[in-house]
Amino acid sequence: MIKKIRASISEKILLIFLMILAMFSLTSYIIIKNKCLFVKNYNPNDIQFSNPENIAILNAPCGNVIIELYPDVSPNAVERFKVLIRANRYDDVAFHRVIENKLIQAGDLEFGRKNSLDYGKIGTGQSGLGTINSELEAEFNFTKGSVGLARTFRNNTEDSQFFIILEDEPLYEGEYTPVGRVIYGVKVLNKIKFLDSSEYVLRPDFINTFRMLD
């Protein structure tokens, strides 16, 4: 007859500890693998907008970023933005410049496309529509979620590239052309891939789609 051996209290405690450790490790792995796990994805069809003609939806890896455009502030810049969005020009374009919790930049239509990414030139590409003049006269506070057109070190060189700030940037006021502000989905932007060693991202995340609500 086989004699049944009872586990000691210390052995039971050790087993429970190992089970908890295994569960914690599995949970941590799932969370790390799924960076979008706790990010709310807003459905624009569930939201009532007072000016739907000026609402744009940028779909990023972790969900929708809903942007209200301000044609009263920067009419020419917003019109350029709308033209490119309606032509689906931003689809599959990289978030090529990302500073953690500060700024994301995208919109290089020439060198930032998923299937033809050029790391040597990204950030210098153009849309083919030419540059437009800076619109800096209107009062606009660059608070968290503000969207502006990127430019070179000179004014009047805005084209297709844009940035979204992830914290208040009062020094941007009067320096960059504003086009709008994120009203839903800022946390989606915080999940976009960045590097600690560089503002320019190797193997970056991409815009899935960018559409006007109407």
TrEMBL record:
SUPFAM superfamilies: Cyclophilin-like. It comes from the Bacteria. The chain crosses the membrane at residues 12-32. Pfam families: Pro_isomerase (PF00160). Its EC number is 5.2.1.8. It catalyses: [protein]-peptidylproline (omega=180) = [protein]-peptidylproline (omega=0). One of its GO terms (molecular function) is isomerase activity. Residues 54-204 form the PPIase cyclophilin-type domain. The keyword Transmembrane applies. The keyword Transmembrane helix applies. InterPro entries: Cyclophilin-like_dom_sf (IPR029000), Cyclophilin-type_PPIase_dom (IPR002130), Cyclophilin_A-like (IPR044666). PPIases accelerate the folding of proteins. It catalyzes the cis-trans isomerization of proline imidic peptide bonds in oligopeptides. Belongs to the cyclophilin-type PPIase family. This is Peptidyl-prolyl cis-trans isomerase. It comes from Pelagibacter ubique.
